[in-house]
Write a structure and sequence with these properties.
single chain, 199 residues, mainly alpha, three-stranded mixed β-sheet, elongated
Length: 199
């Protein structure tokens, strides 16, 4: 038993020394406990491995290596997203990257808690507008979900429902960004790490 652990210790030490990005990426992916994930993310950063925020058009389900000493956060690891990331990734795979905010909302129309997780984690930063502005749009998304639910099971065909929804999708309001402390607090809450900076 002790000999087996000794072998594993030597193997992981070798991986950590010569393949550090792969080591930390797979280590983080193997953990489900949020506290341990935070611990390993901080350890990876301490070892000069950069952790990039999630991106609705670039992130996969799990943490992935995207460059030398660089790891991108996976969508399924976000608080309140989990397995719901599969539907987002399937839509992206089927119909291509999301062109802008309206395209994303029209195609996905996520639940409130999932949408908020994407906003606060930075996964929607590629779209125009601040995180505060995107968060303010959540009521419009709830309204769109009600419209879709109301008409989807009636005689309206799918294209007609899509047009109705598209016509009710509002633009992102013009709002200043949240203060840095709030941004970091929300990043930490939904990703398990401070991404844009550190308090």
């Amino acid at each position: 038993h002790a000999a087996g652990y000794a072998v594993i210790s030597v193997q992981t030490a070798w991986l950590k020394k010569y393949h550090i990005t792969e080591f930390w990426c797979e280590t983080i992916n193997s953990i489900s406990d949020p506290d341990k994930v935070r611990k390993y993310i901080n350890s990876a950063k301490f070892n000069n491995v950069k952790i990039l925020p999630p991106d609705i058009n670039l992130s996969e389900s799990d943490y992935t290596i995207v460059g030398d000493h660089t790891i991108k956060i996976g969508l399924s690891s976000l608080k309140n997203v989990g397995k719901s990331a599969d539907a987002l990734l399937e839509e992206r795979k089927k119909n291509g990257p999301f062109k802008d905010y309206r395209d994303f909302i029209d195609r996905v129309m996520p639940e409130k808690k999932i949408y908020e997780a994407l906003v606060y984690s930075g996964a929607l930063d590629i779209f125009e507008g601040t995180r505060r502005a995107k968060r303010a749009a959540v009521d419009n998304i709830s309204e769109l979900r009600k419209i879709k639910s109301k008409y989807s099971n009636m005689w309206f065909d799918v294209p007609a429902v899509k047009i109705l929804v598209k016509n009710h999708t509002k633009e992102i309001p013009k709002l200043d960004e949240m203060d840095e402390d709030t941004i970091l607090e929300k990043e930490y809450e939904f990703t398990g790490a401070y991404i844009s900076s550190h308090p």
